[in-house]
Write a sequence for this structure.
């Protein structure tokens, strides 16, 4: 088996984790090649192989992803058979890789400690602008604190996502975001000729992580839209009038 390439962040070391792109899989066409999105129209057998490659790369027995709906729902994963309907997941079980599917939205990986000496709980969050203003990050961190995770032990990594330069939004998004956080005005660059804004979504998610009380944060500042050979992008596929798009994954595991 060919191991797919992935990025890691030193902040999460030695916890097993990876930010995977679109390379190293078996899918073809629009889904070339490491498409892991069960919601796509790719061949299911290809998706299954791709997901297994991700799990194997992280030395995990299985890979669990949530049914993501831009919600603020958080779910605990207990077994390899769980099928959570949530945009944030956490587990204390070894051998289970938790993954975030994305194709422009912000993936977040979190590790923490209950015992105080080593990482014994991990979590993921899928944060588009809707989920971010709905409180997906805050709900996840609150849940982890309820699990008695030491706040100072929590480490959060923001993975590849659409950059401000490529993320044009309308006045409706601007108004909804600043209604939640007025200071977020500085994260919008106005494009007056179009009555649009360029929104720095990853920076907004970072502010939500900090507001939730997590101080150890790192950001892989990589744009999914502007790197077509490396990452899938929903917005790029839409602009190119493609019929569908693949999803990449960011994943973390206790091994």
């Amino acid at each position: 088996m060919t191991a797919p390439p992935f990025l890691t962040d030193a902040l999460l070391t030695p916890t097993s984790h990876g930010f995977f792109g679109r390379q190293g899989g078996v899918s073809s066409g629009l889904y070339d090649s490491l498409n892991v999105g069960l919601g796509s129209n790719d061949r299911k057998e290809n998706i299954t192989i791709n997901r297994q490659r991700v799990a194997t790369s992280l030395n995990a027995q299985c890979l669990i992803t949530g049914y993501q709906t831009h919600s603020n729902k958080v779910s605990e994963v207990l077994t390899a058979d769980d099928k959570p309907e949530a945009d944030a997941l956490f587990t204390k079980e070894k051998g289970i890789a938790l993954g975030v599917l994305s194709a422009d939205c912000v993936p977040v990986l979190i590790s923490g400690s209950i015992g105080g000496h080593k990482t014994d709980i991990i979590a993921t969050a899928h944060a588009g602008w809707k989920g971010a203003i709905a409180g997906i990050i805050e709900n996840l961190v609150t849940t982890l604190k309820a699990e008695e995770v030491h706040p100072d032990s929590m480490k959060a990594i923001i993975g590849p996502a659409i950059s401000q330069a490529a993320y044009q939004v309308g006045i409706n998004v601007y108004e909804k975001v600043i209604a939640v956080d007025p200071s977020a005005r500085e994260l919008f660059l106005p494009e007056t000729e179009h009555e649009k804004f360029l929104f720095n979504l990853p920076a907004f998610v970072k502010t939500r992580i900090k507001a939730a009380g997590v101080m150890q944060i790192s950001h892989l500042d990589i744009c999914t839209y502007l790197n077509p050979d490396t990452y899938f992008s929903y917005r790029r596929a839409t602009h190119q009038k493609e019929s569908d798009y693949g999803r990449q994954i960011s994943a973390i595991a206790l091994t």
In short: The chain has one domain: 6-155+225-253. The chain has six helices and 14 strands. The mean pLDDT is 97. The two ends are 21 Å apart (CA to CA).
